[in-house]
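Appendix B. One record, verbatim.
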Amino acid sequence: MAFEILFLLFLFGNALLIFYFYVRQVRSVKLHRDTVPHVFSDYVSLSEHQKTSDLCLYEAKVSEIRRITNLVAILLLTYGGVLGWFSSTLIANFGSGLLTQYFIVFGVLAVFVAIDLLFSAFRQTKLAVSGKSHFLKRLVFCTLVPLVVLPIWMLGTGLWWFWAALAVYGIGVAVHLGLSFNRVAVRPMTNVDLKERLEAFQRRIRFESAKLFVDEEKDAKTSEGVQIVGYGFNKKIILSKYVLEHLSPLEIEALIANKVCQYKQTHNFMTWTALLIVSFLFFWLLGEVVSKPWFYEGLGVHGLDTSAYGTAFVLFMVSAYVFLSPLIPLRNAFSWKRDEKAEENSVLLVDWNAMISAIAKETAHCAGSMVPDSMYFKLVSENPDPMHKIKLIQHLAPRHTRQRDSWLPSA
C-alpha cells in the first residue's frame, strides 16, 4: 500500500510539475511574441518571429498532450490490469519460455513507440526548443536491452545483474558510437583558401585530427551549422552550406571553437565511468525489488507467476521512468553546466562578437527567434537555448569590450 501511494504521488506529481513548466513556457513565448529580440533583429522580421513563436506554442501543446497520453497508458497497463491480463494470457497459451517474455516486453514497447510516432507526426517544424532528436538511439537501445538482459536473468545465476549491467553498458557504448557517425551525404571542402585558414585554426586549438567536410543536405534548415562526428583520427567537422555561404570566416571559426569545446567536454573518461556505475546500481536494484510481493501489488498486478520475467522487467522500467522523471531537469542542468564550461573555454579562443553573431545567424536561419522559458528548456533539452548562450558569452567577455557593439547589451 505504501509503495502504491508513493508511485501515484510521483506519477501525478510529475504530471503537475511538467504542466507548471508548460504554463511558464506559454507565458514566456506569448510575452515576447510581438517583439523581435534585439540580437535577431537584423536577421528575422516581426512576422517570421511571430510565426516561430506560434509554432513553438503548438509544439509545446503537442508535447503536453503526448505526456498525458503516456500517463494514461501507464495507468491502464498497471492499475487498469492490461499488463497482468496480457502477461497471463501469453503464458497460459504459449508457456513461460524466453520467446513469451520477449512478446510481453516488446508488446508494451510497441505501445509507447506508437504513441511517440503518432505525436511526432503532428509536429510541424524542428525548433530549437525541441532539442536534438535521439529517437533512433533510444529505439535501438530499448530493443537490444531486453534481448540481452532477459536470457541472462532467466539463467538464474547469483550475479546475473552484474553481467546484465556489463552487457547493457556495452550496448549503450556500441549504440552511441555506431549511431554517432554522420549518415548524410558529405563532400570534402573545395574552397582552398577557407580550408587552409580553418586547418590553421584547428592546429591553433589543437584539434587538427578532424577533417573538414561540407553537408550535402538539400534542406539546410534540418542540418546543424557545424557538426563534429566520429572519434580518434576518424573525426569529421561538417559545415552546412548555409554557414559557408552566409557566415564570415571569423564566425565559422567561432562556431567550430564552440563545437570543439563541447565535444571535449562531452567525450571524457568520467562520463563513461558514471554511466557504468549507474548501470550496476540499476540492475542490482532490479534484482532486489522483483522478488518482493509489495512491488507487484503496489503496481496493481496480482497473482503474477514467478516465471513472468518479462512482466517484472516492464514493471520495473515503468517504475524507473516514474521515479526518475523528476531528475531529468537536474540531469539537463548538469549538462547545461558542461556546455557553459565549453562556452567559457571557447570565448578564450576566438572573438566573442563573432561567436554571438554566428549563433544569432544560425539560430535565426534554423529555428527562428522565440524566447523560451529557461526552466521549460531545462526540462526538454540537454543543451542551453541560444538566448542563454548569447547572454553567457556576453558575461564571460572581457569587461572592457562588453560595450563594443551597441546591440549586444540588450540581447
